[in-house]
Amino acid sequence: MAAQGAGMANKGPSYGMSRQVQDKIASKYDQDLELILVEWISQQCGSGVGKPEAGKGGFQTWLKDGCVLSELINSLFSGDKPIKKVQSSPMAFKQMEQISQFLTASEKYGVIKSDMFQTVDLWEGKDLAAVQRTLSALGSVAVTKDEGTYRGDPSWFFKKAQENKRDFSDDQLKAGKNVIGLQMGSNKGASQEGMSYGRSRQIL
């Protein structure tokens, strides 16, 4: 009986853990970002791509066959388009192929690997927050490149820092000074012993 109880106990938490992980992934999906991405893609590609039903499921269905994504990346190139054939297909492997062409073209365009979603994240709906992350990164690269192909409001995406150029606004600089001030302030009243202890901790 005890053994059976232990077996049951082992199953419970592992299910609970995977469930928690799933919920955590799901909770990272951003409804506000969805609105921005849909608006951008619609402006970037034109009315031909339509608009999805609101919500995660609609967003996934809209992008799942890879056609909207392919139109999007093609629209950012003024000359030769990276994806020669954008064709809707009911076949799963064709849809996945179209998605993977988008990912390859996005990487060539300048989206870094760590910002890329995996095909199954979109196709199987495993991690739509990762899909949002990739599209946001793509938007940022487009705004930063400023090649005249970006359509939409530039403030929708962060401009990426190029080379080592640092463009901090006055507000950001002030905020940075406040953080430094707080850190220095927190050491007030610390004994010399405490200070040296802190220092040796940092070395480790």
From TrEMBL:
<dbReference type="GO" id="GO:0015629">
    <property type="term" value="C:actin cytoskeleton"/>
</dbReference>
<dbReference type="InterPro" id="IPR050606">
    <property type="entry name" value="Calponin-like"/>
</dbReference>
<comment type="similarity">
    <text>Belongs to the calponin family.</text>
</comment>
<dbReference type="GO" id="GO:0051015">
    <property type="term" value="F:actin filament binding"/>
</dbReference>
<feature type="region of interest" description="Disordered">
    <location>
        <begin position="184"/>
        <end position="204"/>
    </location>
</feature>
<feature type="domain" description="Calponin-homology (CH)">
    <location>
        <begin position="31"/>
        <end position="142"/>
    </location>
</feature>
<dbReference type="InterPro" id="IPR036872">
    <property type="entry name" value="CH_dom_sf"/>
</dbReference>
<dbReference type="GO" id="GO:0007015">
    <property type="term" value="P:actin filament organization"/>
</dbReference>
<dbReference type="InterPro" id="IPR003096">
    <property type="entry name" value="SM22_calponin"/>
</dbReference>
<feature type="compositionally biased region" description="Polar residues">
    <location>
        <begin position="184"/>
        <end position="194"/>
    </location>
</feature>
<protein>
    <recommendedName>
        <fullName>Transgelin</fullName>
    </recommendedName>
</protein>
<dbReference type="InterPro" id="IPR001715">
    <property type="entry name" value="CH_dom"/>
</dbReference>
<dbReference type="Pfam" id="PF00307">
    <property type="entry name" value="CH"/>
</dbReference>
<dbReference type="Pfam" id="PF00402">
    <property type="entry name" value="Calponin"/>
</dbReference>
<dbReference type="InterPro" id="IPR000557">
    <property type="entry name" value="Calponin_repeat"/>
</dbReference>
